[in-house]
Design a protein that fits this description.
There is one protein chain. This protein has 20 helices and eleven strands. The chain is of the alpha/beta class. It folds into four domains: 119 residues, GMP Synthetase, Chain A, domain 3; 170 residues, P-loop containing nucleotide triphosphate hydrolases (Rossmann fold), CATH 3.40.50; 72 residues, Helicase, Ruva Protein, domain 3; 92 residues, Chromosomal Replication Initiator Protein Dnaa, Chain: A (Orthogonal Bundle), CATH 1.10.1750. The strands form two sheets. Strands 6-8-9-10-7-11 form a six-stranded parallel sheet, sandwiched between helices. Strands 1-2-3-4-5 form a five-stranded mixed sheet. Helix 3 packs across helix 4 and helix 17 packs across helix 19. The longest helix has 23 residues. The structure holds adenosine-5'-diphosphate and magnesium ion. The site of magnesium ion has 4 residues, from helix 6.
C-alpha cells in the first residue's frame, strides 16, 4: 500500500503534472515563478486548472466517499487573502460542499499547494426576483440535503423491490390520490431512504408549488418537543398540517414517546382527511413495530404497505454497475460479479466495496481488475486479523455485558446508557471487521461516517483514562477473536 503522498506523486509522475498549485494573476503568465510572488503580494490570483485537477485527484484518493461526479463542474474563481473561492451553481450542491467537504477540500488544497490556504464555496447567484424559479416548491428536510443520487433513475428494480418502487412512483405522480399512506418497510440498507427521497424529487419535478416535508422520525420528535418548550405548538401544527406531502423516514422510533405519538396521530388524521400524501418507512411492518398502538397500526395499513427484500445476485450486480457508473467507473463484469457476491445482505456494502476498490486503484494508475478488487476487499480482513467477526457477534457481546436491547443499539436514542454501548460497538466493528465507516454507521441506525469516527475517537480517549474500560475491551477482543473461523 502506498501512503497518500506516494499516491499523489505516483499520479503526478504518471500524468506528468508539474509541481503543485500555480497562482496566476489576471494577465500574468502562469509558467513564470514570479507569478506566485505577484499573487502573494496582491493576495489575489486564480488557480490553474492543473492544480485544481490535482486537488480533485487527491480528494478522490483520500475521500472517495465524498466525491461526486458533479465536482468536475466546480470552478475555482479566485484566491484572495489565502482563501480559494470556488463557485457553485446549485444550492443543494453548495450546501453539501459546505456541510461535508469544507475541511477535506482545504486539506487537499494545502497538500497540493504546500500553503496554508482555505477553500470556501460561493453560493450560486440568486435568481432575479422577477424570474420564476424552476420549481416553486418548498422542501424542508433535516437531511443535509436531498441526495441528488437518490432518484428513481438511479434505483435498480428487481423482484425484491418492484412493488415499493412502483408504489413510490405512483404516489409521487398523484400525491394523495392513489395509496395513502404509503408505508415501506425492510431491513437496513435495502433502499427505503433512497425511494423516499426519489419520491420527493419526483413530486417536486411534477408539481411546481408542492410543499414537501421530508424528515426523520427523530426530527419530528425533536421539533415537537421544542415546540412544547417554546410554547409554539400552534406554529408547529400550522407547519406540519399544511404540507402537500409529509415524508417520514424510520417511523419505528415514534413508538418511544406518548405525546409525540398523540401529536403524530392528529397530524396524520388532518393530512389524510385533506388528501395530502403521507409516505413512511420503517424497519418492520406496522404490526411488528414494538409498542406501536393499534390505532396507528391500523392507519398505517389504510393505504399500501410494501416490503423491500434482500436483492438477488442479479439485482445486486445491476446496483453495483449503477453505483460504479455514478462515480464514472466502468467495472469489468467479473469485478461487478465479485462485488455483488461479497455484499450480500446490505446494499451499503456495495458502495463500501466500490469505494475501497476505487481508492486502491487510484494508487495504481486507475486500473481496475480482479486482482486489484481482491486485494482491496481482502485487505480489511487480513489486516484486522479476524476473519469472521460480524456485527451480530459484536452486538451479542455488548448486549450481554451492558444489558441493553439490540433495537436500542441500532436505533436513534441518544441517552448515555444507550449511546455509550453503541459507541463501543462501533469501535469494535472498526477494529474487528472489514466494514467501512459508512457501513458501520448503516448498522447502527443509519448514522453517517463522521458520527462513527467520533464514536471511535471517544472510546479511544476513554480507554486511555479508564482502566476498567480497557479490561472490558480486552476481554471483548479476546472472546470475539476466539470465535472459530
Ligand atoms: P435503507 O434506508 O433501507 O437503510 P438506503 O436507502 O439508505 O437504505 O440504501 C442504502 C444504499 O444502497 C444507498 O446508497 C442506496 O442508494 C443503495 N440502494 C439500495 N437499494 C438500491 C437499489 N435497488 N438500487 C440502487 N441503489 C440502491
Ligand atoms: Mg434509511
Amino acid at each position: 500500500m502506498h501512503s497518500r503522498q506516494e499516491a499523489v506523486s505516483i499520479y503526478k509522475s504518471a500524468t506528468n503534472a508539474g509541481p503543485g498549485l500555480r497562482w496566476a494573476c489576471p494577465g500574468a503568465v502562469i509558467r513564470r515563478p514570479v507569478a506566485e510572488k505577484v499573487a502573494t503580494a496582491k493576495s489575489m490570483g486564480t488557480v490553474s486548472s492543473r492544480s485544481w485537477n490535482d486537488i480533485l485527484v487527491l480528494l478522490r484518493t483520500d475521500h472517495p466517499e465524498l466525491v461526486r461526479p458533479w465536482f468536475k463542474k466546480l470552478e475555482p474563481i479566485e484566491i484572495q487573502h489565502g482563501v480559494v473561492r470556488v463557485q457553485t451553481t446549485d444550492a443543494n450542491q453548495h450546501q453539501y460542499l459546505e456541510q461535508q467537504c469544507q475541511n477535506v477540500f482545504t486539506q487537499a488544497a494545502q497538500s497540493v499547494t504546500g500553503r496554508l490556504v482555505t477553500v470556501s464555496f460561493v453560493p450560486p447567484p440568486a435568481p432575479a426576483t422577477t424570474e420564476r424559479q424552476p420549481y416553486g416548491f418548498e422542501i424542508e428536510t433535516d437531511h443535509p440535503i436531498l441526495n441528488e443520487e437518490y432518484t428513481f433513475e438511479h434505483f435498480v428494480t428487481g423482484p425484491c423491490n418492484r412493488l415499493a418502487h412502483a408504489a413510490c412512483i405512483a404516489v409521487a405522480e398523484s400525491p394523495g390520490r392513489v395509496y395513502n399512506p404509503l408505508f415501506l418497510h425492510g431491513n437496513v440498507g435495502l433502499g427505503k431512504t433512497h425511494l423516499l427521497q426519489a419520491a420527493c424529487h419526483r413530486i417536486r419535478a411534477e408539481k411546481a408549488d408542492a410543499k414537501i416535508l421530508f424528515l426523520s422520525c427523530e426530527t419530528f420528535t425533536n421539533h415537537f418537543i421544542e415546540a412544547i418548550e417554546r410554547g409554539a405548538l400552534q406554529e408547529f401544527r400550522r407547519r406540519y398540517r399544511s404540507v402537500d406531502a409529509l415524508v417520514i423516514d424510520d417511523i419505528q422510533y415514534l413508538a418511544a414517546g406518548d405525546r409525540t405519538r398523540e401529536e403524530f396521530f392528529h397530524t396524520f388524521n388532518t393530512l389524510f382527511q385533506s388528501q395530502r400524501q403521507i409516505i413512511l418507512s420503517a424497519d418492520e411492518s406496522p404490526r411488528d413495530i414494538p409498542r406501536l398502538e393499534d390505532r396507528l397500526v391500523s392507519r398505517f395499513n389504510w393505504g399500501l404497505v410494501a416490503r423491500l427484500d434482500t436483492p438477488d445476485l442479479e439485482t445486486r450486480m445491476a446496483i453495483t454497475r449503477k453505483k460504479a457508473r455514478l462515480r464514472c467507473i466502468d467495472l469489468p463484469e467479473d469485478v461487478a460479479h465479485y462485488i455483488a457476491s461479497t455484499a450480500m445482505a446490505n446494499t451499503r456494502e456495495i458502495e463500501g466495496a466500490i469505494t475501497k476498490i476505487l481508492a486502491l486503484s487510484q494508487q495504481f494508475g486507475g486500473v481496475i481488475d480482479m486482482a486489484l478488487a481482491r486485494q482491496a476487499l481482502d485487505n480489511g480482513t487480513s489486516e484486522s486479523n479476524t476473519r469472521n467477526v460480524t456485527i451480530q457477534d459484536i452486538l451479542k457481546i455488548v448486549i450481554e455485558h451492558f444489558g441493553v436491547r439490540q433495537a436500542d443499539l441500532q436505533g436513534k436514542r441518544r441517552n448515555r446508557s444507550i449511546a455509550y454501548p453503541r459507541q463501543i460497538c462501533m469501535y469494535l466493528a472498526r477494529e474487528l471487521t472489514p466494514l467501512s465507516l459508512e457501513e458501520i454507521g448503516g448498522h447502527f441506525g443509519g448514522r453517517d461516517h463522521t458520527t462513527v469516527l467520533h464514536a471511535i475517537r471517544t472510546i479511544q480517549e476513554h480507554q486511555e483514562q479508564d482502566a476498567e474500560l480497557q479490561v472490558t475491551l480486552q476481554n471483548f477482543f479476546k472472546t470475539l477473536r476466539k470465535k472459530p473461523a
